[in-house]
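Good morning,

Both structures are done.
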Amino acid sequence: AGCEKEPSSYMWIYILLGNMLRGIGETPITPLGISYLDDFAKEENVPVYVACLHTIAMMGPMFGFLLGSLCAKLYVDIGFVDLGSITITPQDSRWVGAWWLGFLIGGATSFLSAIPFCFLPKSLKKPEEANKDKTSRGLLENTGALRNKLSPEKTKPRKWSVMLKGKLLGNRMYFTFLCCSLLQFSGFIGFLTYKPKYLEQQYGKSTSKSNFLIGMTSLPPVGLGIFLGGLIMKKYKMGIIGATKFSFAMSFLAYAISFLHFFVGCDNYVVAGMTVSYE
């Protein structure tokens, strides 16, 4: 009778809401951070600064995998049960690691790292070169503001549909970049999601070991590539066309090398009822 109704938990709702709040808080950092750098840095230094920003952003998941590897070695009820009474090991399929510990450590670290942002000034002194380049634009903006003062009109609030069509979807360069990013991240996330499972199933590695291997082998080269790309763009002073050609060449080379994964693999396990018949 006790097996007829399995116990259910609604803790996943708290995890969902927590991740939603975390995403809302983390989202402005990248677009606003890049805009902040673009506005108050010299033009030739912006690629390096943006590359540093993305490189540090890639180090976050790397340390996250390492932290996940450490937490997976700890039993889920650590601090609440006697660890000496636990008879299973992390290699056992019934083992559940302390997945919740990473949220506490990551949340506390994020809170501490957010404090310095409160002391950043809203505006910095712009470089002289940037001021010269933006003189004409400033004159146009001042002229427009003066005209509005002389002939004030009630400005109607713009609808989201108009903003999306005019500013975002109407910009062909931005729309193309958005589609390209969606395709790239879709492939990258799939690879990052199933590769640890593949290591666990085919090579008999524990969850902790798989996370450690993924964190050390996949993410550092990506961060190094982003940083080197920023240095190359600064050295050769690439414009939008040069940067596009450079990005296309590197992406094509990356996909060509990734194609070699089709020639590396292991045979599936023999599982009765799945890969072979019961007979």
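Second structure follows.
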Amino acid sequence: QVALRIRPMSAAELAEGARPIAHSTDEQVVVLRDPMEDSDDVLRARRSREKSYVFDVAFDSTATQETVYRATTRGLIAGVISGYNATIFTYGPTGCGKTYTMLGTDNEPGICARTLGDLFQSIEDTSSDTEYKVTMSYLEIYNEMIRDLLKPSRGCLQLREDAGGTVRVAGITEVSAISAEEVLQLLAQGNRQRTQEHTAANHTSSRSHAVLQVTVCQRHQGGGLRCGRLFMIDLAGSERAAQTQNRGQRMKEGAHINRSLLALGNCIKALSHQASSKYINYRDSKLTRLLKDSLGGNSRTVMIAHISPASTAFEESRSTLAYAHRAKSIRTTV
């Protein structure tokens, strides 16, 4: 499932005279207008300045956190408890609301808090003859290095592939949890360790991809063990140096961010035309190796793309819409 969310215009965009050029016409269609095309241009007079993109669900700037959660993620919880895998990830340019959608604020909690609350509630509501164990890990991929956000002192961790072909992080801290509040406390602790910096596009720009993994194992009395994994991923924003005005260290970070997002884009492109290309190159980045099952394997996956409606962000919005639209044709096999 691919969703698209348009954030409200920011004070900075309004101050520099930006006009809104993106809007959703109904629950699935997003229209983007090219602000540069001249209405007096005779050669292009018959060409439409607007382009429409169709998604599984589209949210305009008035959509609430609860609306986004119900339409994208709520339906995945029953599957995770039953032993299936699920992945939710946010994508889009720097400063377009990915972290807000995923983590939210104290007053408006995001997808992570709402999903965990419903997950533990569903476990409580199930029959008493089933035993559950919930574990979680939280990591970030920063400059192509993996850091444990629950125990940052462990340094750089490595990816390993087990006998079943599942990619795992060697030495990652896995914490058992018995309530949503406990997981949210650990999540808040991890977020304080996360790499953030000021850029011209966003005062608290995430400079890393953050991956929260929740594993739910269930054992029926006299039955076997079933495990479902839930990934919740807040990607770092794709960015142009001109837009973020980054130099030096920030610019190097941006290059690493864009490299891993390009690798992700290449995997999405190959998966959406799977008949023509049998080989999917997941090994181009740590991010794509970690997301191998989520993108092409045994997982139900939701991508929530984000754009700004401002005319000044037209190029970023157009490339994000094209990227997300391409992801719509991927079919995973749960």
